[in-house]
Amino acid sequence: MLSPFPRNRRAFYLVLVCAVTSICFINLLVLTHTVDDSVIRLPNLSLFTATTNPVIGQYAHDEHPIGDLMKEANRKWLVYDNSRSTNFRRTVAKYREKYGRHPPPGFKEWYMFARKKKAHNVDDFQQITGDLRPFWAVPPAEIRQMAAELQSSDGIAGVQIRNKKVVYSPVEGWRVETLRESINRIVQYLPDMDIALNIMDQPRVMVSFEDTQEYLRTEALTRSLPSDAQDRFTPDMNYLYKKDSNIEERADPSWTSIAGKLYMDFAKESCDPHSPARNENFALQDADRLYKSSSGGFVTNFTASSDLCTVGPVLGKNHGFLFSASSNLITRKLIPVFSECKVSVNNDILFPANMYFLNDKRYVYNSRHDYEWQDKADTLIWRGVTSGGVQLADNWQHMHRQRFVHTTNGTEMSSETVSILSETNLGQYRTYPSFNPSNFSLDHFDVGFTEAWGCIPNCSFYDDVWTYKKPKDFSEQFKAKYLVDIDGHSFSGRWRAFQLSKSLGIKATIFREWHDSRLFPWRHFVPMDNRYDDLYGLMTYFLGLDSPASPVDALSTSEPHIKSHDFEAEVIASQSREWAQHALRNEDLDIYLYLLLLEYGRIIDDNRDSIGYSGDGSELDDFDDQYPFSPAIRDIVTPPLSFTDEQ
Ligand SMILES: *[C@@H]1O[C@H](CO)[C@@H](O)[C@H](O)[C@H]1NC(C)=O
Ligand SMILES: *[C@@H]1O[C@H](CO)[C@@H](O)[C@H](O)[C@H]1NC(C)=O
Ligand SMILES: *[C@@H]1O[C@H](CO)[C@@H](O)[C@H](O)[C@H]1NC(C)=O
Ligand SMILES: *[C@@H]1O[C@H](CO)[C@@H](O)[C@H](O)[C@H]1NC(C)=O
Ligand SMILES: *[C@@H]1O[C@H](CO)[C@@H](O)[C@H](O)[C@H]1NC(C)=O
Fold first, then answer.
1. Res 16 pLDDT > 90
2. Ligand 2 in contact with 306 (CB < 6 A)?
3. Smallest CA separation from ligand 3 atom 10, residue
4. What are the UniProt keywords, alphabetically (predicted)?
5. Does some domain include residue 93?
6. Ligand 5: which of 386, 412, 468 to mutate, judged by most atoms within 8 Å of the beta carbon?
7. What's the CATH code of the domain at 402?
8. How far apart are CA 545 and CA 564, in angstroms?
9. Is any ligand 4 atom within 6 A of the Cβ of residue 463?
10. Which of 12, 201, 373, 508 has a 20 to 30 Å separation from 544 between CA atoms?
11. Domain identity same for 594 and 562
């Protein structure tokens, strides 16, 4: 073994240089009173230290499908990171290529805002455009009128922007307050508008597939790039919410409550007629092939794994939200409702969840409570309440959280078997269909409900079913290497903290959020099927499985064996952490919301076809020189020193 010193010494010198530099700056600031500190800023030391430590080691040389999935994710990631725009010229050109329109008015100011706040990627906002696309088929005045009228509608609140200020809302509550505060940080850049805010946990808008297709066709026809577009919003448009005015009931959304009903009975109308959801003779295996690996059943397409048109037939009676949601008020009309999450069949307009803006210790990550990977336990942890849907003595087996707690319970699994992959000689893997996971689960899982909630008439039917465990706050949870994140009766607000932590996040969900396109499954987190049938395959891969006998040939029927892939787990955990520090910051929430409201401001503008930013981007050449983009995310994996010692 060669000595590890050269690398460490280099790092030491780097830190030394940084320290000296910052001391000079401090002196400069302290000694020269006239210095304007908006010009010479005190550099933050964090700018000079790597946000995440390199992970030293090597990938396993074997043929496990997870290795391939990680490689493929990294390939896609490199394409993503290397193709980002790194100046304003390129950003606007790319916008036009992608959407066939000019960027909205105010885009230049948004770009400067985003760059000053160190946005790593200024192109990845297709969720916004995607959510708003169908509205190009609706006249702007009609959208404004709907947004105004919706403010007195069931489960909706309003946030209004007038004359660069957020004004009074008729319905109050923590969601309105939080959104109002967020918008206050950017309101100076925004035109007048009404925002119809969904104050329920569940998404609201579910337009039929055929109608949505029609809207999208219309949108495609409205695309144009007028060379004389005005870079400003139209002032003083009518049909915005006015206090005390009698609101006409022209655009009644006709809310339908489908609480307690089977969601897929309604959702399937929003699916492609060729999808599994609308074809009764689509076999389970056919749907699985669309998103699971043939070997091991791991999720190969995370989007499809949460696409109700694909998984709905199987999941419809196995997820609380789909089986018996506690509240669910939907409309079939295309109306402009802003929601924090939605499922694949919804037309709600997504914005970064209010939860993320609250300083709530249940959701906010603090590195003081975290541990280094090697100090964490080889444990998978999950805690939660029995939320998901309304529970009765004879229906709770259909809820997802309950299924998860059952699947991870060593006692309950003592008489069940699951399918996992077992290592044969030469690093190959084959299916081992009858693994008894009981002992594995007892050794590694710490899963349980903290309390029962949401039962009719009361939760006493659970008395002999669960043992309630103590809640664990983040400082306790982060002692485990593996953190599972599953839905409640809506999306899970812990996910951002999990991504930021040094532990590895494992996620199963049917909900979509603002950040989905920037998080790469198998690079930034481990995706899990909502059926949880891949759970033991995943966990035996990462944690390894010793069998009393040594690995034997492919035909043997002896006990399964898998070597541990702790290194792979640490790599994904570190990549997620580093990326979250670039892409899931509070600033990133503001940057997203700001662009969303510019785009929304355009779509409700009577002159939406002739406004936008039509320049070539050259006026920000100097700005771009002044604010260079952060470098591409480097590869966090460092092979052991003995292989790459460079002197
Ligand atoms: C540096 O730190 C200060 C205080 O923690 C913070 O307000 C500022 O935004 C930071 N600047 C950069 C460039 O990160
Ligand atoms: C993943 O699934 C989505 C939704 O079903 C589909 O649109 C997409 O093309 C799939 N991606 C790949 C790489 O197959
Ligand atoms: C689980 O562990 C116990 C105690 O070590 C052992 O007796 C039992 O055979 C194990 N069960 C399985 C299925 O390996
Ligand atoms: C809960 O409901 C059961 C069944 O209806 C009833 O027998 C029991 O008294 C209830 N318990 C409480 C604490 O209300
Ligand atoms: C696991 O299952 C056993 C048997 O059903 C039950 O007694 C126990 O409370 C369960 N454990 C947890 C943590 O729910």
1. no
2. no
3. 439
4. Membrane, Transmembrane, Transmembrane helix
5. no
6. 412
7. 3.40.50
8. 7
9. no
10. 508
11. no
CB 472 within 8 A of CB 377: no
| pLDDT tens track for 177-191 | 999 999 999 999 999
Cβ atoms 337, 348 nearer than 8 A = yes
Percent of the chain topping pLDDT 70: 88
**Whether 194 contacts 256, CB under 8 Å:** no
**Tokens 């460079």 correspond to what residue?**
646
User: pLDDT digits over 87-97, tens only?
Assistant: 999 999 999 99
Of residues 307 and 15, more confidence is placed in 307
Find how far residue 410's CA is from the centre of its chain.
Answer: 31
Q: Do residues 513 and 594 share a domain?
A: no
Expressed in angstroms and rounded, the spacing between residue 320 Cα and the centre of ligand 4 is: 23
Last residue of a domain, one of 584, 619, 634: 584
Tokens of 633: 């995310």
Do 161 and 259 share a domain, yes or no?
A: yes
User: Does residue 478 belong to any structural domain of this protein?
Assistant: yes
Residues 397 and 326 in one domain: no
Same domain, 306 and 396: no
Q: Which residues pair with 420 in a beta bridge?
A: 432
Residue with tokens 């949108």: 219
Position 341 in a domain: yes
Q: Which is more confidently placed, 523 or 1?
A: 523
- CA of 292: how far to CAs of 122, 189, 404, 529, in Å? 31, 45, 19, 8
pLDDT at 311 over 90: yes
Q: Do 599 and 540 share a structural domain?
A: no
pLDDT at 644: 46
Residue-wise DSSP of 253-301: ---EE-TTS-HHHHHGGGS-TTSGGG-TT--HHHHHHTTB-TTTT-BS-
Q: What is the number of domains present in the chain?
A: 2
Q: Which helix (H) or strand (E) holds 338?
A: strand 338-339
Average pLDDT score, the chain? 89
Same domain, residue pair 333 and 198:
yes
How far does the centroid of ligand 1 lie from the alpha carbon of residue 575, in Å?
23
Q: Please say if the pLDDT value at position 532 is more than 60.
A: yes
Output the CA–CA distances (angstroms, integers) from residue 174 to 171, 271, 399, 512, 587, in the order listed. Answer: 10, 34, 28, 22, 21
In a domain, 77, yes or no: no
Domain range for 314 is 103-357+587-606
